[in-house]
Amino acid sequence: MRLAIVYDSRTGTTKAAAEMMAELATSKGHDCSVVPVQAADSSDVSSAEAVCVGSWTEGLFFILQHATKATMEFIETLSLEGKPAAVFCTYKTSAGKMLPKMAQAMKDRGARVTGQFKARGPHVPEGFSAWVDDLG
Ligand SMILES: Cc1cc2nc3c(=O)[nH]c(=O)nc-3n(C[C@H](O)[C@H](O)[C@H](O)COP(=O)(O)O)c2cc1C
């Protein structure tokens, strides 16, 4: 399956996590791209069979967490009618309600959001491997 992973990273943590996620998906036989949101092509990502979008957590560490503006603006450009999708973030203290908000934005673009993952550092988030397995 063609899977597109798009991420926003300021200091490299989310980039490292996204690249490990792509490596894992590739090792399971998927054709997986991984690109920073600043370089992502909306129609290319929308044409993938499954899409995963991630951001670092921006907020006041314990409150008001959200995905980056670039991430949310990119999601708004997608057209994902019925496609399986996931959102993820890296964080330090708390991701708050950021993932459900990202998921809602993806649903508003037509996606079927079947995964919401977080990693406290440059790791493959828990649950991502099983999500990839469920893609078939
Ligand atoms: C301005 C700023 C605000 C942040 N706010 C939060 C926050 O509210 N909650 C949290 O858990 N981490 C917060 N962090 C930590 C980052 O989200 C975390 O270190 C992330 O993994 C960084 O990813 P990156 O290396 O890809 O940029 C904040 C970092 C910065 C620079």
Descriptive key words:
136 residues; alpha/beta; globular; Rossmann fold; 5 helices
Folded structure, characterized:
With 136 residues, this protein is α/β, with parallel strands linked by helices. The protein has one domain (2-135): Rossmann fold, CATH 3.40.50.360. The chain has helices at residues 13-27, 42-46, 69-75, 98-108, 128-135, and strands spanning 2-8, 31-36, 50-56, 84-90, 112-119. It has a 5-stranded parallel beta sheet, sandwiched between helices. The chain binds flavin mononucleotide.
Write a brief structural summary.
By secondary structure, this protein is an alpha/beta fold. It has one domain (2-135): Flavodoxin domain (Rossmann fold, 3-Layer(aba) Sandwich), CATH 3.40.50.360.
Q: Which range best describes the helical content: under 10%, 10-25%, 25-40%, 40-55%, 55-70% or over 70%?
A: 25-40%
**Helical segment count:** 5
Round the mean pLDDT to the nearest integer and report it: 97
CATH architecture: 3-Layer(aba) Sandwich
Structural class estimated from helices and strands: alpha/beta
Q: What is the total domain count?
A: 1
The CATH superfamily appears as Flavodoxin domain
Strand content: 25-35%
Bound ligands, each once: flavin mononucleotide
Largest sheet geometry: 5 strands, parallel
Secondary-structure element order, as H and E?
A: EHEHEHEHEH
What is the 3D form?
A: globular
Structural topology:
Blueprint (H helix, E strand, L loop, with lengths): L1 E7 L4 H15 L3 E6 L5 H5 L3 E7 L12 H7 L8 E7 L7 H11 L3 E8 L8 H8 L1
Parallel strand pairs: 1-2, 1-3, 3-4, 4-5
Bound molecules: flavin mononucleotide.
